[in-house]
């Protein structure tokens, strides 16, 4: 049952963002930029484990993984302004993010970050 609640709430947030963004792109972006999924993930993790060590590790790793995801939000509009179709720009942005995640994981481990 808890899984269904998590799924429904997460789906509602995605539906809200896309619905609002259709009429008000800036407000849709604001809602999407809020760390709602991260907060929900923390709530779900805490509800299921009550483990402060695991929570600390999760939140710290989330911080370090947010950084390499940010360039995607610059790359997609840049590519589209230069004539790249949306789906190709999105794919390129996602691939860029994957590469940056891998780099973050490799470099982070060498620096002793808890990833």
From TrEMBL:
**This protein's UniProt keywords:** Membrane, Transmembrane, Transmembrane helix
Bilayer-crossing residues are 27-46, 58-80, 86-107
Q: List the InterPro entries.
A: BV97_02767-like
Q: What name has this protein been given in UniProt?
A: DUF3147 family protein
Organism, as annotated = Tanticharoenia sakaeratensis NBRC 103193
